[in-house]
Every structure is written in structure tokens, then in C-alpha cells.
Amino acid sequence: MICRLVKRVLVGIAALAWVSVSVNAARWDHLTGEQLEQKLTEKFTQGQYSPKGADSCLMCHRKNEVVMAIFDGAHGSMNNKQSPMAGLQCEACHGPQGKHNKGGKEPMIAFGEESKLSASAQNSVCQGCHNDPKQMAWHTSTHNLEEIACADCHNVHSAKDPALDKLTINDTCTSCHSKEKADMNKRSSHPLKWDQMTCIDCHSPHGSMNESALNKPTINDTCYSCHAEKRGPVLWEHAPVTENCVTCHNPHGSVNDDLLNSRAPQLCQQCHAPDGHASRVVPEPGMDAFGGGKSCLNCHNKIHGSNHPSGSLFQR
Ligand code: HEC
Ligand code: HEC
Ligand code: HEC
Ligand code: HEC
Ligand code: HEC
Ligand code: HEC
Ligand code: HEC
Ligand code: HEC
Ligand code: HEC
Ligand code: HEC
After folding, report:
1. Dihedral (C-alpha) 207, 212, 215, 218: value to the nearest 10 degrees?
2. Closest to 94 in 3D by CA, of 60, 129, 51, 44
3. What is the pLDDT of residues 122-135, one digit of tens each?
4. Which of 24, 105, 188, 198 lies most in the core, judged by the most C-beta atoms within 10 Å?
């Protein structure tokens, strides 16, 4: 009985707290993203920072575990002079408090999926401190042009930023890239699903000057960085191999062996006519040289090129 009463009181308090919070939140909930941006810009020019820094924020926000976790990460460190916590503290990112503490009359800069601010507005806060040349490619990157926010990948209110941990990078990327997620779980793939490799082994998350934001100038250079033996030089080159590995392979994964886009003979017949030469070849008894086994590769097995003096047909 007592138990139930206590519970009812608790529920009552919780409901009250919720009401007051949502009333406060509603003060700026009706604003459009643009109006909000304008209001926040005004606030910035007034520059009314709280004299007590984080302490004044924590009066209301300390119960929120997400908020408190900032002290476990790089931005919560007091030792680093460049760190927000050694300067304007919370307001270095969320902007001046102004009258926000007066019954929530004024909005703060918010980040992440629920923020009404444009990605570029959010990102400009981060870039205020993170403006080293390494980030230059960001401006022309697809991610920037597609309005992806720094906070879509990074989590600053945490001890472990998921974008910086090898075991969670792939999850971060595939939360948006569902096609690559499906591919990497197919039968043949790079060891991405075991997190032994990550998307950033090939791609630069902040963009690069190369196509598809690759780390290396070309697709083939990307592949050679690990598959050096495919670089050659070879005596007899197979033109598509030196041109572009992804003509035949899907780097993210495939239902076919060896990450192949399709299987032989179809793979080869995109370029080589299926005519004539079939009749000139005598398949071994019981084996259909063109459909069964490794098909064309039964004979042309040095498909990446040959170093044999008489290997011009990639047979040896
Ligand atoms: C008097 C209490 C109070 C103080 C002090 C306070 N806040 Fe808030 N804050 C709130 C309330 C209430 C909300 C709206 C409810 C919510 O979303 O949690 C809120 C929301 C926020 C949000 C989310 C905004 C959004 O649009 O989703 C951020 C960020 C924030 N506060 C940061 C700060 C910072 C930084 C400080 C210190 C400079 C601070 N707050 C001081 C009460 C306070
Ligand atoms: C380095 C910039 C930075 C600093 C410093 C910072 N925040 Fe945040 N804050 C963020 C980002 C980014 C988010 C969105 C969530 C995330 O990515 O971690 C956020 C989210 C929040 C939220 C919303 C949390 C929720 O439950 O969704 C509140 C409230 C908040 N911060 C308050 C604070 C307070 C209080 C401080 C100081 C103790 C602080 N922040 C310091 C960047 C910062
Ligand atoms: C007031 C300056 C300041 C602002 C604003 C700021 N940062 Fe930082 N950030 C730092 C400093 C200082 C470090 C630590 C660098 C170091 O240790 O070399 C850091 C480190 C980082 C790191 C690496 C973290 C790690 O654990 O090594 C990431 C990622 C990062 N910041 C992202 C962000 C994002 C995203 C935002 C915007 C929401 C942001 N920062 C806003 C100053 C800032
Ligand atoms: C698509 C996801 C993604 C976005 C968007 C993103 N980052 Fe990163 N960021 C990463 C990953 C992944 C790493 C780890 C890179 C590594 O280990 O080589 C990283 C590393 C960092 C670091 C650590 C230092 C460094 O350069 O290695 C900082 C600082 C940083 N990012 C800041 C930012 C800022 C500022 C923005 C927004 C302008 C941003 N990031 C946008 C994924 C992202
Ligand atoms: C918040 C969603 C989101 C996250 C998280 C995200 N991306 Fe993207 N990414 C996009 C969008 C949207 C595009 C543009 C449309 C497309 O190509 O799918 C894009 C494009 C790309 C491209 C093509 C770039 C080009 O110039 O053609 C690459 C590569 C890429 N992302 C890699 C990554 C990697 C690696 C990560 C993790 C570190 C990541 N993305 C995380 C949304 C995201
Ligand atoms: C082994 C290297 C490698 C790895 C690992 C890799 N990619 Fe790629 N990715 C590429 C290459 C090469 C291209 C260009 C393909 C092309 O032009 O057809 C590409 C293209 C892309 C594109 C652009 C696709 C399009 O249709 O334009 C996206 C998005 C992408 N990758 C996301 C990812 C994500 C997410 C991961 C991690 C799950 C990842 N990649 C891992 C090599 C890689
Ligand atoms: C960061 C290193 C790295 C890069 C870059 C890389 N690979 Fe790989 N690749 C691997 C590893 C590791 C394996 C797995 C080897 C194993 O399982 O024995 C592999 C396996 C393969 C396989 C065989 C897959 C199978 O099912 O057995 C093919 C085909 C392949 N890679 C093609 C490519 C192509 C094409 C590129 C360029 C787009 C590329 N790789 C870039 C590391 C890399
Ligand atoms: C003309 C199509 C084609 C092109 C282009 C191509 N490959 Fe392959 N690759 C194949 C085929 C077919 C196999 C399977 C070989 C077999 O079954 O004997 C294969 C297998 C592989 C393997 C796994 C077996 C091995 O030989 O190590 C790797 C790794 C590989 N390719 C990397 C590359 C790289 C790197 C490039 C670009 C330099 C490339 N491939 C270009 C058709 C191609
Ligand atoms: C993207 C197009 C393309 C694909 C796919 C392709 N090839 Fe080729 N292949 C070529 C080109 C171009 C040449 C050079 C032809 C020339 O020099 O006349 C060539 C040359 C050859 C040669 C040497 C014959 C000659 O005339 O020099 C053989 C054998 C061969 N390919 C077999 C294959 C096999 C087997 C496959 C499938 C595993 C395959 N090719 C896939 C484009 C392709
Ligand atoms: C049983 C072995 C064998 C198989 C299987 C085979 N080839 Fe050949 N291929 C040869 C021989 C032998 C030659 C040389 C024929 C000649 O000089 O008359 C040749 C020649 C070629 C040439 C050079 C141009 C030409 O027509 O002379 C190409 C291209 C070629 N093959 C592609 C393919 C493709 C594509 C497949 C699969 C659809 C395939 N081969 C399957 C043995 C084979």
C-alpha cells in the first residue's frame, strides 16, 4: 500500500517535471530553422556568457548522463589549453547562455539529428577550433555538400567517440550507407564485418581530392596499397586490370567468389564476344569449359596479366 502511494507520488513528480520541461522547450520549438539561426546569431552578438561557465549549466543539466559524459572525453579536459573546458566551457560549443537559464526563454545551439540548425551552422562551431589543413578537403567533400554534420559521425559527449574506435567506425558509416552494409555482409567481402578492416582503410571520412573520397589518387592505387603483387609490371598486361580493378570487382562485397561483379563467362563476355573461339576449343571429357567450373578461367587463369614469354593469352 505504502509502496503504491510512493510510486504514485513519484509518477506525479515525474509528470510535473516533464510538463515544465516541455513548456520550456516549447518556447523555441515553434521557430523554423532559419528563425532559430537568426535568433542564435543575435545572441552571439550580445555575447552574454555566463560568469560561472559550466557550473551554471549543470545546475539544470547535471542529471543528464549524456551531458556529464563530456568530462570523460578530450573536450572536457582542463589540462589542454585549447580545450573548450579550459576556456568558455559548455558555451564554447553551445553559444552564450544569455537568458536561456531564465525559464528556458532562449534557445541554445543544439547538435545532432534533432537539431533544427543547418549542418553548416553546426559545423562552423566545430571548425572554429578544428581548422587545420588536414580538414581542407572537407569543404568540397560530398559529405559537406550533402549537409552531413560533424556530429552525425562524432560524439563529443562520450568517453569513446564511435568514429575514432576501429570497432565502431563501420557501424557509424553503415548507419547511413545501407547498400555498402548489405554488400559487406555478402558471401565474398573484405573482412569489414569482422572490423578487421574499416571503411577508412580506403576512404577519407573528411573527403579527399580523389574520386569517391578515396585515400589514394586512383582506385587502382587504393587496391595496390594492400595487393601490391597486382601492380606489376607484367610482360603481358590485361587492359581492364591496369585500367580499373572495379570493372570486375566490387570492393564492398559480392555474392560471387572473389568479390566479382558477375561470374565467368558473363564477366568476360561483357567485352569478349562469345563467338567462334568456343568451337575451336576442345573441352576435356565431362567438363563444359565455358559454363562449368571456372569457365573461361579454366584456361585463361592468369587473368591479371602474365609474365610467361608465351603467356599473351593469360594461360600461363
Ligand atoms: C534554469 C535551467 C537551465 C540552465 C541553467 C541551463 N539550461 Fe539548458 N535547457 C534547459 C531546459 C529546460 C531545456 C529544454 C528541455 C530540454 O530539451 O532538455 C534546455 C535545453 C538545452 C539544450 C538543448 C537545446 C535544444 O534545442 O534541443 C542545450 C544544448 C542546453 N540546454 C545547453 C545549456 C548550456 C550550455 C547551459 C549553460 C550555459 C544551459 N543549458 C543552462 C534548462 C537550463
Ligand atoms: C565540443 C563541443 C561541446 C561542448 C564543449 C559541450 N557540448 Fe553539449 N553537445 C555537443 C554536441 C555535438 C551534442 C550532440 C550530441 C553529441 O554529439 O555528443 C551536444 C549535446 C548536448 C545536450 C543535449 C543532450 C541530449 O540529451 O540530447 C545538452 C543538454 C548539452 N549538450 C549540454 C552541454 C553542457 C551542459 C556542456 C558543458 C558541461 C556541454 N554541453 C559541452 C557539443 C558540445
Ligand atoms: C574550443 C575549441 C574546440 C571546439 C569548439 C571543438 N573542439 Fe574538438 N577538440 C578540441 C581540442 C583542444 C581537442 C583535443 C586535441 C588534441 O588532443 O590534440 C579536440 C579533439 C577533438 C576530436 C578528437 C577526439 C579525441 O578523443 O582525440 C574530435 C573528433 C573533435 N574534437 C571533434 C569536434 C566536434 C565534432 C566539434 C563540434 C561539435 C568540436 N570538436 C568542437 C577543441 C575544440
Ligand atoms: C562521415 C563521418 C565523419 C564526419 C562527417 C566528420 N568526421 Fe571527423 N573523423 C571521422 C573518422 C572516421 C575519424 C578517424 C580518422 C582516422 O582515424 O584516421 C575522424 C577524425 C577526426 C578528428 C581527429 C583528428 C584527425 O583529423 O585525425 C577530428 C578533430 C575530427 N574528425 C573533426 C571533425 C570535424 C570538425 C568535422 C566536421 C567539419 C568532422 N570531423 C566530420 C569521421 C567523420
Ligand atoms: C549521416 C549520414 C552519413 C554518414 C554517417 C556517413 N555518410 Fe557517407 N555519405 C552520405 C551521403 C548522404 C552521401 C551522398 C550520397 C551517396 O553517395 O550515398 C555520402 C557519400 C559518401 C561517399 C561517396 C563520396 C563521393 O565523393 O562520391 C563515400 C565514399 C562515403 N560517403 C563514405 C562514408 C564513410 C567512410 C563514412 C563513415 C566514416 C560515412 N560515409 C558516413 C551520408 C553519410
Ligand atoms: C577496399 C577498399 C574499400 C573499402 C574497405 C570500402 N570502400 Fe567504398 N569504395 C571503394 C571504391 C574503390 C569505390 C569506387 C567504386 C566505383 O567507382 O565504382 C567506393 C565507393 C564508395 C561509395 C560511393 C558509391 C557510389 O555509388 O558512388 C560509397 C558511398 C562507399 N564507397 C562507402 C563505403 C563504406 C560505407 C564502406 C565501409 C562499410 C566502404 N565504402 C569501404 C573502396 C572501398
Ligand atoms: C587495407 C588493405 C586492403 C585494400 C586497400 C584492398 N584490399 Fe582487397 N583484401 C584485403 C584483405 C585483408 C583481404 C582478405 C585476404 C584473405 O582473406 O586472405 C582482401 C581480399 C581481396 C579479394 C579476394 C576476396 C575473396 O573473397 O577471397 C579481392 C578480389 C580483393 N581483395 C580486391 C581488392 C580490390 C579490387 C581493391 C581496391 C578497390 C582492394 N582489394 C583493396 C585487403 C585490402
Ligand atoms: C577482367 C576482370 C578483372 C579485373 C579488371 C581485375 N580482376 Fe582481380 N580477379 C578476377 C578474377 C576472374 C578473379 C578470380 C581468379 C581465379 O578464380 O583464379 C580475381 C581474383 C582477384 C583476387 C583474389 C585472388 C588473387 O589472385 O589474389 C585479388 C586479390 C584480385 N583479384 C585483385 C585485383 C586487383 C587489385 C585488380 C586491379 C589491379 C583486379 N583484381 C582487377 C578478375 C579481374
Ligand atoms: C572491361 C572489358 C574486359 C573484360 C571484362 C575482360 N576483358 Fe579480356 N581483354 C580486354 C581487352 C581490351 C583486351 C586487349 C585486347 C587487344 O589487345 O586486342 C583483352 C585481352 C584478353 C585476352 C588476350 C587476347 C588478346 O587478344 O590479346 C584474353 C585471353 C582475355 N582478355 C580473356 C579475358 C577473360 C577470360 C575475361 C574474364 C575473366 C576477360 N578477358 C574480361 C577487355 C576485357
Ligand atoms: C579450354 C580452354 C579455353 C577456355 C575454356 C576458353 N578459352 Fe579462350 N582461348 C583458348 C585458346 C587455346 C585460345 C587460342 C585460340 C587460338 O589461337 O585459336 C584462346 C583465345 C582466346 C582469346 C583471344 C582471341 C581469340 O579469339 O583468338 C580470347 C579473347 C579468349 N580466348 C577469351 C575467352 C573467353 C572470354 C572465354 C570464356 C567465355 C574463353 N576464352 C574460354 C582456350 C580457352
Report:
1. -140
2. 44
3. 999 999 999 887 77
4. 198
The pLDDT confidence band at residue 277, using thresholds 50, 70 and 90, is low
Pocket of ligand 6 (CB under 6 A): 170, 173-174, 177, 180, 184, 190, 192, 197, 199, 201-203, 212, 219, 222, 246, 251-252
CB-based contacts of 57-64 (< 8 A; 24+ apart in sequence): 57/89, 57/90, 57/91, 57/94, 57/97, 59/101, 60/101
The pTM (predicted TM-score) of the whole model is 0.93
Distance 8 CA to ligand 10 centre (A): 82
Owner of C-alpha cell 582542463: 78
Cα-to-centroid distance, 73 and ligand 3 (Å): 9
> How wide is the angle at C-alpha 166 spanned by C-alphas 161 and 167, nearest 5°?
90
Three-state SS for the chain is CHHHHHHHHHHHHHHHHHHHHHHHHHHHHCCCHHHHHHHHHHHHHHCCCCCCCHHHHHHHHCCCHHHHHHHHCHHHCCCCCCCHHHCCCHHHHHCCCCCCCCCCCCCCCCCCCCCCCCHHHHHHHHHHHCCCHHHHHHHHCHHHHCCCCHHHHCCCCCCCCCCCCHHHHHHHHHCCCHHHHHHHCCCECCCCCCCCCCHHHCECCCCCCCHHHECCCCHHHHHHCCCHHHCCCCCECCHHHHHCHHHCECCCCECCHHHECCCCCHHHHCCCCCCCHHHHCCCCCCCCCCCCCCHHHHCCCCCCCECCCCCCCCCC
Name the residue ranges covered by the structural domains of the chain. 135-213, 230-298
